[in-house]
Design brief:
Layout (H helix, E strand, L loop, with lengths): L3 E9 L2 E9 L11 E2 L4 E2 L5 E2 L4 E2 L8 E5 L2 E4 L2 H6 L7 E8 L9 E9 L4 H14 L2 E7 L4 E9 L2 E7 L21 H14 L11 H14 L18 H21 L3 H13 L1
Parallel strand pairs: 1-9
Antiparallel strand pairs: 1-2, 2-10, 3-4, 5-6, 7-8, 9-11, 10-13, 11-12, 12-13
Helix pairs in contact: 3-5
Length: about 280
């Protein structure tokens, strides 16, 4: 299991369940460092003070809040520690909600909530009760100098926790929403539905990968081997002029895909399928 990001109690009525939080997902990226072309070595970033005209050490730094332009107030760690909310140690469940009521726009990060040995039974009981009733829990937790509202949901026999943005952190865009002054024809909607249905499939996350990361990795491998990396051609897209025609062509192209895949299938595989039909 990964490193613990929070340790404390999940409070439910008079029941307190000792749990740990672990990061459930994090992005994978190919990282680059800034280097000097001449030396091929990394640069060092230094903390420079224009007023003192010198490089300062970390022990000289303080935490400052800019309350006005170029006006700062020093706030030290001890002062912050004194005002930490109870949620730094106890994650109290405030209420239970239907998961479908929560707009995914509010989700930020995901964590696994894992019980300590002493809390396994209470953890299992709460998880099963939420599964049976179809509810998720809303709670508060403090970590990394921030108090989060979190949603806790049952998943695969355990609890998954999602930190959420607050309402005042979610941007409302005036141009977002229902498109006014647009007429959608019945046939257009019918074709659009057919196209959606033709592309419908069960959600299987393992089918998808980061092609950008794959191409960057291939570029690095090619350069290490002294080769030129293959250039990826970007698709040529243009605004749709005839929507009906575009929908019809999209449907026709989708219908041809299974046929094209069958034609590309090796002869040996086709023979096996044929023999199975005969014996069946």
């Amino acid at each position: 299991m990964a490193a613990t990001v929070w340790k404390g109690f999940l409070s439910f009525g008079l029941i307190s369940i000792p749990v740990r939080l672990y990061t459930a997902a994090r992005p994978k990226r190919v990282s680059f460092r800034q280097i000097v072309k001449e030396t091929m070595r990394p640069v060092k970033q230094q903390l420079y003070s224009p007023e003192l005209d010198r490089v300062v050490e970390r022990k000289e730094l303080a935490k400052g809040y800019e309350y006005a332009k170029d006006q700062f107030l020093i706030v030290d760690d001890d002062e912050i520690k004194k005002i930490e909310p109870p949620s730094k140690d106890t994650m109290e469940i405030l209420e239970f909600v239907r998961l479908a009521e929560i707009d995914p726009l509010y989700y930020e990060s995901s964590y696994y909530a894992v019980p300590e040995e002493a809390g396994r039974k209470a953890y299992a009981l709460l998880t099963k009760a939420m599964e049976d009733e179809g509810y998720a829990a809303l709670a508060k937790v403090s970590m990394r100098q921030r108090e989060y509202t979190v949603v806790i949901r049952p998943r695969k026999g355990g609890m998954t926790l999602h930190t959420m943005y607050y309402a005042d952190e979610v941007r409302e865009e005036s141009e977002y929403g229902k498109i006014e002054g647009v007429e959608i024809k019945e046939q257009e909607e019918k074709l659009a539905r057919q196209l959606i249905e033709s592309l419908a499939a069960p959600f299987e996350p393992e089918k998808y990968d980061d092609s950008y990361r794959t191409q960057v990795t291939a570029l690095i491998e090619a350069k290490l081997e002294g080769r030129e990396a293959e250039e990826v051609e970007a698709p040529r897209l243009a605004p749709v002029i005839d929507l009906m025609q575009a929908l019809q062509q999209s449907l026709e192209a989708k219908k041809k895909q299974p046929q094209a895949a069958e034609e590309a299938e090796p002869a040996e595989a086709k023979e096996k399928k044929s023999s199975k039909r005969k014996t069946g």
